[in-house]
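Ligand: iron/sulfur cluster. Inputs:
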Amino acid sequence: MSDTKAIFTGDRCLSCTSCMANCPVMAAIKDYRGPKLVGPAHGRMHFSQEDIETSLEFCSNCKSCDRACPSGVAVSTLNMLRRADYYKTHPHTQVEDMIAHGERMANLIRKIPFGATFSNVGMSFGKALGIFNKLGLAGERNMPAYATTAFKDKFNHIKQTATGKKIVMFTGCFVNDNEPQVGEAFIKVMNANGYEVLIDKGFNCCGSPLVVTGYLDEARQHADNNVARILDWKKKGIPVVTPCTSCSLMLKEEYHELFGEDKFHEAAQNVYDAFEFLEILQERGEFNENLKPLNQKCLYHVPCHLKSQAIGLPAVDILEEAGVKVQTADAGCCGISGNYGFRKDKYEISMKIGAKLFERVKQKDFDKVISDCGTCRMQIHHGTDIKPCHPIEILALAYA
Ligand code: SF4
Ligand code: SF4
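Predicted complex:
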């Protein structure tokens, strides 16, 4: 069993408090006792199932603490493991069940004729009538609208030239159900670089919403299924590439931190974030540099879950090849952290954390805001009325 499993990292804690100094939730509210106490300290020293640090509920799993830790303690994952312990003896609420199971809901909606349209109308009424608020969701927010046609249904109608070089796209739920245009841009870019894109309809949601909401057993089922499929593709020599930074982090790192078997490490070697993959092509001299100059200026909000992958900022290097001037926003976490900011009781914390980023975006000294994470894009849109896009949508324009 691997020593990267989170429970083996807690004893490395030096009590330096670097994680606390870098936790955006601690900076936003007084009630949170912080990563050092909630993660390594409490993870090692609890004495019974009932001995729960209640302020654990405030952790958003943004992973800023992990990046700040000089000892390699997987603080955020220790928090998520303790959260799952909590739910062994405490029932989930209705809203927790709902926000953890977005994939289940989307699958249901896709089976109903015009289901996406009816759901979008229903969500608008739900918001206007204050129903979301009563359920425990943040009534201030729009729920993400379903695309009329899911990306996986559009996929079969997208013409690609069969080549000897193939990748499998792990679409992620948000791209599949809400922003299929990101998937179409992904295909255009990969085709331009000589790769035929396949999809595997047997993949589940990566499990991130389940982990953060304490459904660890279900997340494990998703991990086992996804990893078995990734390993099958690996045997065929076909890499798995995703345009979602939270999915890539889960597939590459969080599975083995949570569950600790060697198969999770092995599968991780066959998974790439989209721009990481393109940068590898660039390093090998295989990147298609036949790009139309775009002469755009983009403000880049780097998602926390991309920073946690320690792969640098490959989108910046690649977009600059297309004549795009990219400036990073350098304004910290956006605050939404997946489903965290959708909860009524976390909305204000989420908006307080995002305030610095919103101010930066409102300066409007750019043509477009870009970010690789779907929920970061939603948060920026909500906090500024400026709609960001995925950096691969910009790159796709250069291959027109
Ligand atoms: S994951 Fe984020 S919110 Fe949770 S303890 Fe770490 S820094 Fe704080
Ligand atoms: S940063 Fe790491 S070593 Fe320092 S207190 Fe936090 S968990 Fe412990």
